Amino acid sequence: MAPCAGREDSFRASSARNVRVVPLTRRAAFVSYAGKRTLDLTLTVLSAPLWGPLLVAVAVLVRVRLGAPVLFRQTRPGRDERPFTMLKFRSMTDTRDADGRLLPDAERLPAFGRRLRATSLDELPELLNVLKGDMSLVGPRPLLMQYLPRYAARHRRRHQVAPGLTGLAQVSGRNALTWEARLDLDVEYVERASLVLDLRILARTIAAVATRRGISAAGEATMAEFTGYQPAPSAVGTPDARSAPTSRGLDGTP
């Protein structure tokens, strides 16, 4: 894993809101290993007889249990921070309070939605994103567009590869990880990407889904929002100190 730069780590949430996101250039982009796209297409197409009928069956269940729309669509940053529309099965209701605001995740996530997430069946439609080329089978998970100006420079490197259906962070703790650990693992994947690593991650993903590890962060229905960086309490006033990402609840986080 690349060494952490202190000044990047002292990037603060307050200043992040004023930072303009500069798209990553092709010159700076990481060149993925040869054959990665071929691997994505080969495995996705060959496994279609397995996931295709399952996709249809889950869609029917979502329609019956949660109603329309069946799919959850959201714009996420892809490779080089280019936006694309990510597809997932809907797992939450749209229940709102008297003022028309969405209720917290925990109150909008029914038992059926929890089962979808626990089995990762809500992510099946992302295989369509893989076929289209917006995503890869393995890579950093596509997060929210509003996170882009909040990343330290080293964490923006996670967008130098196509986002993945699963990734190094997902087989190392998933949503139970802290944001700092999760983003560091994303950068580590960028630096180590290879055919062997992808195959290992895919194999470990099966085990992670089977054991349902790391479905949500402690005390959260899903994953707390990444709001940027602030100095650690013991390091206030120390310019080269590491920082800890701050977080708060977010409706609809992955």
Description:
With 254 residues, the chain is an alpha+beta fold. It has one domain (6-218). It has 9 helices and 6 strands, in the order ααααββαααββααββ. The chain has helices at 6-9, 13-16, 36-46, 48-66, 105-108, 111-118, 126-132, 179-192, 195-211, and strands spanning 71-77, 83-89, 136-138, 164-166, 225-231, 243-248. β1 and β2 (83-89) form a beta hairpin. The model is unreliable at 1-31, 232-244 and 246-254 (pLDDT under 50).
What is the string of helix and strand elements? Answer: HHHHEEHHHEEHHEE
Oligomer: single chain
Structural class, judged by helices and strands? alpha+beta
Mean pLDDT: 79
Describe the largest sheet.
2 strands, antiparallel
Percent strand equals 5-15%
Strand order of the largest sheet: 1-2
Q: How many H/I helical runs?
A: 9
Radius of gyration: 18 Å
Count of beta strands: 6
* Structural shape: globular
| Poorly predicted spans | 1-31, 232-244, 246-254
Straight-line distance between termini: 25 Å
- DSSP helix fraction: 25-40%
Query: What is the total number of structural domains?
Result: 1
List the helices and strands and how they pair.
Layout lengths: L5 H4 L3 H4 L19 H11 L1 H19 L4 E7 L5 E7 L15 H4 L2 H8 L7 H7 L3 E3 L25 E3 L12 H14 L2 H17 L13 E7 L11 E6 L6
Parallel strand pairs: 3-4
Antiparallel strand pairs: 1-2, 5-6
